[in-house]
Every structure is written in structure tokens, then in C-alpha cells.
Amino acid sequence: MPKRLLLIPAAGVGERMKIGYPKQYLPLMGEYSMLEVTVNRLSAMELFDQVAVVVSESDAYIDKCRFDSEVSIFRCGGATRAQSVLNGLKALKAEDEDWVFVHDAARPCIDKDSVVRLIESLEDSRIDGAILALKVTDTIKWVNEDYLIEKTIDRSHCYRALTPQVFRSGQLIAALTSADTLVTDEAGAMERSRAKIKVVEGSSINIKVTYPNDIDIVRQNLKALNKKRGIYK
Ligand code: CTP
Ligand code: MG
């Protein structure tokens, strides 16, 4: 049976958050940092055989984190997200056929129902992997460098990619090794090898904390989630 491994890239610097330290260490719920909330919520789901976090070699905060269950810490972050994930995959030493779920440290509002849907989608043996995503509801414009609209994209084909994204360890390592290191998600690397990747309906509260304005929204989302399911604190 292939294992289910969770890999959380947390080696970014959080430039757009502008708090002077990496956003994954921002206190989010009481004393719990964003990374602690993300990891503890996912561990509490009891769906993974191993949980691992990738941080940068110079990370000065990870040792103070309090995780509720066992977490492997890999100090092998790279210059881009794709490189951090690739280095983390190698450190995991998984079997080629193991499923690796990659989830942004910056998405603490991940809910169990979405992850269960993602896992269930893997029962279809024709697919190489799956990602959580949301159907686009706004009309989408393709805009040029002068901010002039060139065309409207048919939004019925447009989805916003979220995380987790899940692929076989061996295939994902191969895809990330040959892809541009600026690729922004795992699916982006896998698409180039014509992989069959299923889009699974995610949740609109699973936002990525990117800008300061996102923090209040995420705190509210977490309160609502915890009231509903009582998963974590
Ligand atoms: N990440 C990583 N290694 C990098 C860059 C990003 O592990 N070299 C991680 C981040 O820590 C985050 C996730 O990838 O959990 C998504 O990236 P993003 O939201 O862009 O975070 P940052 O890169 O830290 O933020 P910014 O782009 O504003 O600097
Ligand atoms: Mg970034």
C-alpha cells in the first residue's frame, strides 16, 4: 500500500506580508503561529503516515514551535517554492509510488472534508494526481502590459489552484527536477509531462495568507472552522 505523506513548504520569507520576519511564524490563534496551526490542524485529521516541514537552513524560529504530534523538520529550503518542495521530497526518502500531499504553510484554514475528497479522488486509477481548486466566479480578462484588455477567457474552464496538491513521490521529483524553478505549484510542473491531474472542489475559506489584510479574514475563518468541527483549539 502506498503511504500518504504530507510535505509543508515553510521556507519563504513572506516579503509581501511586510512584518520583518517570515509570515509562517506570525501568531495567529492565541500564541499559536500560522505554521503551528497549519501543521496541528492537518495532523489532527489523522490521514497521513508522516508529516514533514521544510524550512530554510538559517531558520531561527522552528525550534520554538509546539507541534501536537511528531513532525519531521527538514532544514533544506531553496530559493523558490519549487526548490523547497524538491529538496523536501528528496529528504523524505519516500518510495516512488507513495503519495505526497504538498500544502502551503500559509494556508492554515485547510478543512478535513476537502482533504478527504482529495484522498477519495485518488481511487480513480487513471489519474496521476489531484489538486484542490475552486471554480472561478468572476469574468476573467487577459490584459497586456499597458493594462488594456485583449480578450475574455471562457471562465467555465477556469479554476483557482489551492493546496494540498497530491502526486506520486517519484513522478513529482522527476517533474520538479526538469521544470522551471519558478513554477508556482506542483501541478504546474506535472502538467508539462502531460500528467492526468484531477481538480477536486476545495473550500473558499482555504485562502493563502499573502498580504496583511488576509490575517483578519483567516482568524475569522479559523474561528468558524473550529466552532463547526472542534478539530483544533
Ligand atoms: N515557500 C518555500 N520556499 C520558498 C518560497 C516559499 O517553502 N523559497 C513556501 C512559503 O513558506 C509558503 C508557500 O511556499 O508556505 C507559499 O509561498 P508564498 O505564499 O509566496 O510565501 P512567501 O514566499 O514566504 O511570501 P512572499 O512571496 O510574499 O515572499
Ligand atoms: Mg513567494
**Strands side by side in the biggest sheet:** 5-4-1-6-10-7-11
- Computed CA radius of gyration, to the nearest angstrom: 17 Å
> Kindly, what is the distance between the CA atoms of the first and last residues, rounded to a whole number of angstroms?
33 Å
Q: Which percent band covers the strand fraction? A: 15-25%
Mean of all residue-level pLDDT scores: 96
Helix/sheet category: alpha/beta
Main sheet makeup: 7 strands, mixed
Helix content: 25-40%
User: Number of helical runs?
Assistant: 6
SSE string, helices as H and strands as E: EEEHEEHEHEEEEHHEH
Sum up the overall morphology in one term: globular
Could you say which small molecules are bound to this protein? cytidine-5'-triphosphate, magnesium ion
Say how many strands there are: 11
Uncertain regions spanning at least 5 consecutive residues: none
InterPro entries: IspD, IspD/TarI, IspD/TarI_cytidylyltransf_bact, Nucleotide-diphossugar_trans
Site (Positions MEP for the nucleophilic attack): 155, 208
EC number: 2.7.7.60
Function: Catalyzes the formation of 4-diphosphocytidyl-2-C-methyl-D-erythritol from CTP and 2-C-methyl-D-erythritol 4-phosphate (MEP).
